[in-house]
Amino acid sequence: MTMTHYMELLATNQPWNLLLFMAVPVILAETLAITELAVLFRHDAVGPVRTVNRWSAILAGGYFAIVFATLMVTAAIPLTLAGGWRGPIDVIAVGFYLFGIVPLGGVALLELGIIGRDRSEHERMKLHVAFVALFLLTAHVAMIAGMLDPTLIAGDAMAADQGPHPTH
Which of 24, 68, 73, 114 could bond 101 through an S-S bridge, CB–CB 3.0 to 4.6 Å? Predict the structure, then answer.
């Protein structure tokens, strides 16, 4: 079975790639999601849970911006230019993973007051929740697609041995 580039990235350079590209972003995002629920149920705009929520949002967005830039330059763009994708499933897995910058970056920008300044506290909270939900959705699509054999849907098994392998 051929692996998606997403899964290959996580499997290569063990345990570092798994930690850097999966564990750190997921721990930050899960901390954000869990504290988000606590803030919503307690209607607590202040306090230690809100502080953890705020900082996990800022750190997740900043960290994932670095991950996004790194993977665009070392993987996505070179794979696209070299025709090295292993089929639509491969593109979906990597694409949805990289799309995580939109919700994580958005929630960080919201917390930093760069976006949403003109909205009420309730509207900012709704946007905050929407960003967290969107990240959970995109991350799970990336993980599920990443675990599939990329050649299942019109993939080219030969592409597995072509193009750059920036994850090594």
Answer: 68
DSSP 4-16: PHHHHHHHTTTTH
Cα 70 from Cα 136, distance rounded (Å): 21
Long-range contacts of 63-67 (CB under 8 A, 24+ apart): 63/24, 63/25, 63/28, 64/25, 64/100, 64/101, 64/104, 64/105, 65/101, 65/104, 65/105, 65/108, 67/20, 67/21, 67/25
**Quick one: which H or E segment has residue 31?**
helix 24-42
CA distances from 39 to 34, 50, 107 (A): 9, 6, 15
Overall size of the chain counted in residues: 168
Q: What is the pTM of this model?
A: 0.87
Phi, psi of 161 (to 5 degrees): -105, 10
